[in-house]
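A protein record in our archive is deliberately plain, so that people and models can read it alike. The record that follows is passed on verbatim for readers who wish to inspect the format.
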Amino acid sequence: MTKEEYLAIAASHYEEIESLKEKDNFYDYEKSFDQVWQELGRLYLENHMNELSSTRDRRKKTLTKFGEITVSKSHPYMQGVVNGFSISPLMQELITYAGHLECYAKSEEILEKFTQVKVSPSQVYRVTDCVGESLEEEEKQAERILPPLSKEDVLYVELDGSMLCTREEEAWKEVKLGRLFKGSDCLNPNSNSAYLSDSQYVAHLGSSNDFGERLQKIVDSYGRLYHRLVFITDGAAWIQRMDCRPLPAQLSGT
C-alpha cells in the first residue's frame, strides 16, 4: 500500500469523522467514533494484505477482528493457519476465549458487543471445539516447560481434583489437576503477599492412572530429586491410586 493509497482511505472517512463533533454526549460520540475506526481498520487490513497478490488470484472471505475482508487465497498468511475456518487466527482466539467463559449463544452476544463482529453460536462451537481438541493433543505430550532445578532447589507438586458436569452419560466427572513449581519461584513465602513467579499446570479429565502417567513424565524430566521432590495433596483416594512410582515426600491436608 502506497502512502497515497493510505491517505485516500483516511480521506474517504474524513467527513464522517468530522460529523461526530455534532454529537451532544460522550457516549454517542465514542460509540460512533469506534464504528468509523472499525471500518477504517477493516479497509486498511484488506488493502494491506492484498497488496502482495495479483488481481487475478481467487479471493476468499475471511472473518477478522475488524469484520469480514476479502483476501487472496495465495497470500502467505492464508496457507494452513486458520484450521480450515474462514476466520483469522486472532479472531479464533477471541472466539475461543469467549466460548470457554460462557454458553455459545451468550458468547455470540459478548463478541458482537466487544468487537462489533457478528458470529453465530455454531461458529463459536466449531472453533472452540477444534482448539480444545488440539490443546488436548498437545497436553498428551506432557512436555516440561520450566527450566531445570538448581542443586539447592526443591520441586513442589500440588495435586487436587474438582467435579465437572459434562454432557456424557456419566454426567459428573472429576478433573485432576497438578501444579508444579520450584521453591525458588515462591516469592515472599512467609508473608501475606506470597506468590509464584512461574509454574506449570497438568490437567486431565479421566482416570487417575492416565493423569499419573503424564505427571510422572514431567517429574522424571528433572532427574533424580529424592528429598528435593515434595508432593502437596489433601490425601484423596484417587491420588493414592495413581499408577506412578512411590513419592519421596508428601504433605497431606495442606
